[in-house]
Design a protein that fits this description.
By secondary structure, this protein is α/β, with parallel strands linked by helices. It contains 11 helices and 12 strands. It has one domain: NADP-dependent oxidoreductase domain (TIM Barrel, Alpha-Beta Barrel), CATH 3.20.20.100. The chain has an 8-stranded parallel sheet. The chain has a two-stranded antiparallel sheet with strand order 1-2. It is globular.
């Protein structure tokens, strides 16, 4: 039985679908036809929350959703993002009010809708005062273009400042057994303010779904190739942790992905998770045990096995980490 959780005034399943890898970032993306088939199958299986962004394939992921799901818009909660852009190897942040408004209009057009349920700022723009971009997002809410706004990869301090300008509906953070950064401050701050916390990469970028055995076999453009935890030095340590984790999942009679998601959702009643996949079999697996939770002894065992002290390597390369506003372990 699915126990639903609140998100921007609605009650939805806490396991949604991150759509990024249908267009960008990991393995070679599936064809448009296969992606459309997967998205429609997701709705048929009961997925309610779909997450995309203007960044993904420079709007291509939004266009994919708009085309694949035309006629089914009323069946799902739609989240997208703005503020982070890329062109070739160039990457930049722009959260100026004019860009927020223009980007929102572009997203609405690409998504074939007149309403986005949850619209995030993808990264913090340190050149624009928080009051300006929070105010701009609030205007979009008042105009009925978006249901609520959120923050992605930002700090608890930024959340509190923005929330005072216009209430923040959700924060999106990387959160999994091997990425515990939200536990520094954001998990408690979001709970205190009544803000939903949406965990991306809850399966450790595929590691806790048996998705990576040998990083050297990853595709040439797979972003994990440049992430420290997948380096030749760090990977043997992290693979050993994953193998121990798999044994716990087998003992519980669930798949590693199901155990990893259950752990994330155990962290608070305001927590949601948006695993991504391009495989139909994984799509069903990820929501195959929606109401199952391991007992506290298992949760404690996992906490001791995989955490910021046992994982080898930071989550991002130095250059990328420096662009983040979210808290990091010293």
């Amino acid at each position: 039985m699915v126990v639903k959780r609140p998100l921007v005034g609605r009650s939805i399943s806490p396991i949604g679908l991150g759509c990024m890898n249908l267009s960008w970032a990991y393995a070679a993306p599936p064809t448009q036809e296969d992606s459309a088939r997967l998205l429609n199958r997701a709705l048929d299986l009961g997925y309610e929350h779909l997450d995309t962004a203007r960044l993904y394939a420079n709007g291509g992921n939004e266009t994919l959703l708009g085309e694949a799901l035309k006629g089914r818009r009323a069946e799902f909660f739609l989240a997208s993002k703005t503020g982070l852009f890329a062109e070739g190897t160039k990457r930049w942040v722009d959260c100026s009010p004019a860009t927020i408004r223009r980007s929102c209009e572009e997203s609405l057009k690409a998504l074939r809708t007149d309403f986005i349920d949850l619209y995030y700022l993808h990264r913090r723009d340190f050149t624009v005062p928080i009051e300006e971009w929070a105010g701009a997002m609030g205007e979009l809410v008042r105009e009925g273009k978006i249901g609520g706004y959120g923050l992605s990869e930002m700090s608890a301090e930024t959340l509190r400042t923005a929330h005072a300008v216009h209430p923040v509906a959700a924060v999106q953070v990387e959160y999994s057994l091997w990425t515990r950064n939200p536990e520094i401050a954001m998990l408690s701050a979001s709970r205190e303010l009544g803000v939903a916390l949406v965990a991306f990469s809850p399966l450790g970028r595929g590691v806790f779904a048996n998705g990576v055995r040998d990083p050297s076999t990853l595709g040439e453009h797979d972003i994990r190739r440049g992430h420290p935890r997948f380096s030749a030095q760090n990977w043997p340590i992290n693979l050993s942790l994953a193998e121990s984790f798999n044994l716990v999942a087998a003992r519980q009679g669930v798949s590693p992905a199901q155990l990893a998601l259950a752990w994330v959702l155990s962290r608070g009643e305001h927590v949601h998770a948006i695993p991504g996949t391009s495989k139909l079999e994984h799509l069903g697996e990820n929501i195959g045990r929606p109401g199952w939770r391991p007992d506290q002894a298992v949760l404690d065992e996992l906490d001791g096995l995989i955490n910021q002290r046992t994982v080898a390597g930071p989550r991002y390369p130095d250059a990328m980490q420096k662009t983040m506003d979210s808290e990091d372990f010293n």
